[in-house]
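Minutes, project check-in
Item: structure for the 461-residue chain
Input as provided by the requester:
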Amino acid sequence: MTVRLRPGTGRANVALIVVSVMLAVLIGPLNSTMIAVALPAITHDFGMRSSAGTWLVTVYLITMAALMPVVGKLGDRFGRRPVMLVGLVAFFVASAGAAIAPSFAVLMASRIAQAAAASVLMPNGIAILRETVSRQRLGTAIGMVGLAAPLAAAAGPPVGSLLLAASGWRALFVLNLAVLIVPLAVGWLLLPRHTRSGSGGKFDVVGSMLVCVLLVAFAGLLDLPASGWAVAGWALLLVVSGAVLLRQERNHPDPAVALGLFVNPPFAVASAGILLSNFAMYGPLLSLPLLLADRPHWPDGATGGVIAAMMVAVAVLAPFGGWLSDHVGQRIPAAIGFVVTAAGLAPLAFAGPQLSAVGVGVALAVAGVGMGLSNSALQTMSVEAVDPSETGMASGVYSTCRYLGSITVSALLAGPLASSVQNAAGFAAPFLTYTAAAAIGAVLIALLPLFSHFRKPVSCD
């Protein structure tokens, strides 16, 4: 699976660029899961209630999801290299601030800064790959980068536990400083310098702010507030911000989010697909620890093992899914991936309480194989569906859809599915939901040929 540079990239070494993007991309998911094991220690040190610690995770995820379309647009406008380097430096500084935070408020501010910086890395990293890797090898490169996110998310809790036991919770943030050295050095030395492709008009500040408000309102509504007034408030904010955003983006010559993206069939299907895929992946991640906590005769440590089986399968198959995309197109691995995912999750819906640890692990590994096949294909489909000058913005919207999948399933598990996952026999409702999400993804991919302009890059001006 050799990856080649586009002609004219000069001295840049594609292997180092891909590794650099991989390390930059893994920072976001690593820091979203690694801190979970340290929350009790953090709240204890600062004398806070344990519930306050969850905001360190919630605010991080919402900030990343809300900012990704905006920072992707910044890369389109001002160039990938400077925006990427600013993101890496900002994450370095924010991590240093978190490591020495003297109060919970400072730590929270550092986490928000971390999330804002991390939101830069995925969309602009993918855009850099599109600019430096030949189209014939783009899927392979995206697949190689694609293994970083699930591995980082899976590695977060065990790595966090080791650091917490060895040096305390501040060591979790110090780790980031070491991880960032390579992407910073490679970015400075090798990333292409002439990558500015956006228009020179006035930047859409109002549209960028409205995108953030819209996504925050969506996340707030999904959180299912206990008060009816709170629900009404979030719903009103969602509707008003959405309406104003539509008007703003239609009238702006260089919108923060081009509305044409959502009527571009390959991009729209790819974005919906990654939302469904992340929904199907994060559902088991979040629900199995609850479903298996009080299960009789369940082996100690087996829960982490069966979840790891799924995440490792996702990571291992991601490069192969990208390679398949290069050789047979994106639809085939995406469709097969969703079907395999549904086939892996369905046994847990119908026979979850009766399956042994090995049976649960095998089912999740099969689902992970499907996710690995489909995710790289979907990412490649999304970037090839748009004009190169809009790759950053499109990658940002796509990445936001990825996070919305995890946010949506989290809300369902805290609300309508909460009673099911508190019961060791309650596999049916949640896993039928995850299986349905994968099946819908397969249907969307199967219907894609019915839409026009498939495989043709479409400008979203």
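Outcome recorded: The chain is about 75% helix and 0% strand.
No further action items on this chain.
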